[in-house]
Amino acid sequence: MPRLLIDTDPGVDDAFALALAARAPEVDLAAVTTVFGNVGLPATTANALGLLAACERPDVPVAAGAARALVFPAVREAGHVHGEDGLSGQSARLPRHPGLTPGGAVPLLARVLAESPEPVTIAPIGPLTNIALLLAAYPDLKPKIARLVVMGGGLTGGNSTPAAEFNLWADPEAAYRVLVEEDVPTLLVPIDLTYRCAVDGPWLDALRDSGPLGALLESFTPSYRAHYTSLLGRDCTILHDAVAVAEAILPGTLRTERLPITVQTTGPGRGAVIADRRLGVPPSPGYREIDVAVDTDLDALRALVLDRLR
Predict the structure, then answer these.
(1) What is the mean pLDDT of residues 4-12?
(2) Which candidate in 82, 97, 227, 240 is catalytic?
(3) Is residue 4 within 8 Å of 34, Cβ to Cβ?
(4) What pLDDT, on a 0 to 100 scale, did the predictor assign at position 1?
(5) Do the strands 186-189 and 62-64 form a parallel or antiparallel pair, or are they unpaired?
(6) Where are the beta strands (DSSP E) in 170-272?
(7) Contact, 65 vs 106, CB < 8 A?
(8) CATH number, position 137
(9) Where in the sequence is the domain holding 59, given as residue range(s)?
(10) How high is the mean pLDDT of the chain?
């Protein structure tokens, strides 16, 4: 069975993504690592532990990773979107977990890769700090990575600044190292697609009524749902990270294009992804060709996520 590693900063959409991976029969969720991002590292780590316990997966090792970006600390977290605890103030509803695996995120990621008999997929769905550190410290393990399925970036604009999406904006230097400087097979899942995969009120009602886990996940959405309802003018929730994890567990769920991309690390565009769509032009210096998710069967994707979370 294919193995999967998730690096995450829960976060409401991360909670849905983590539950999706924990419940998926298609993959072996080998470990979860946490990173700063939507809220601070203590909260993202506590949320990851509790979510795995809620999914009845206390067997999955969890390790805490980077508490800040590689170079410059992030200007702000996203508590105004996810709630100050990351889960709309409902994190106390999570059950207890046996606790963290000692040693930290990067050593745990490296150990799983080294011990795996076949290459492992990694789904980074928060800032890319841990993954940049992994690739820098353990370059010999890159052949053990089947691919990175990264949630982040926006080809036509951002959600944290006019140019930059939150995950890449939180640590642009790490994003540049992972997406541009490395040679690991990579699929980027940008917000241009994830916004189109919004779920509505009836979808969330169906999730709530499906059982204890569905009800728990739906209870985490009020702050997040209110944010997107206000932003987009309709009752909806954007499950950004679950879109990437759906592709990680079922390759081919998303339609992709091969594009040269770079990540801006300076100026007003800091954290922005730039894709070179010119035809017949070789990639410019400072760009790398990667796969970028551009489309999917929206109804099928929503049904897949709801089915697994039930």
Answers:
(1) 97
(2) 240
(3) no
(4) 82
(5) unpaired
(6) 186-189, 199-200, 236-237, 254-263
(7) yes
(8) 3.90.245.10
(9) 3-197+240-294
(10) 95
For residue 76, pLDDT over 90 is answered with no
Q: Are 8 and 33 in contact (CB under 8 A)?
A: yes
Q: How far is CA 91 from CA 37, 95, 122, 151, 201, in A?
A: 16, 9, 26, 23, 22
Mean pLDDT of 101-111: 97
Asked if 240 is an active-site residue, the reply is yes
Question: Token pair of 304, please?
Answer: 């897949």
Q: Which of 76, 77, 70 is nearest to 134 (CA)?
A: 70
Count of domains forming the chain: 1
User: Could you tell me which residues come within 8 angstroms of residue 213 by beta carbon, excluding any fewer than 6 positions away?
Assistant: 19, 23, 54, 55, 309
Task: Please indicate, yes or no, if residue 202 is contained in any of the structural domains.
Answer: no
Mean pLDDT of the 265-271 span: 95
Q: Note the pTM of the prediction, 2 decimals.
A: 0.97
- Cα distance between residue 280 and residue 53, in whole Å: 51
Q: What is the pLDDT of residues 206-223, one digit of tens each?
A: 999 999 999 999 999 999
Cis ω for the linkage preceding 286 (within 30 of 0): no
